[in-house]
Amino acid sequence: MISVFKTNVSSDRELNKISPLLNRYFKEIKWNIDLWDNDKILRVDSNKDWTAEITALFSSIGLRCTHLEVFHTDPF
After folding, report:
1. For labeling, which of 9, 30, 31, 46 is most exposed (least CB within 10 Å)?
2. What is the CATH number of the domain that holds 25?
């Protein structure tokens, strides 16, 4: 499933602040943040719903992250 979040990550400095935490605590997910998008979209690809944990992680370091949508992907 792909979860989509709106964030307030607006600079490389903030991205460098959240990146190691996402990589450390959520090793089994693939993620990216689109700094060029107006909503600074975070996309998370995982087999599990990590919405609560991800939004809590962002909040713990003073960043915002709002869950927008989930897309379920069919296995091949």
Report:
1. 30
2. 3.30.70.100
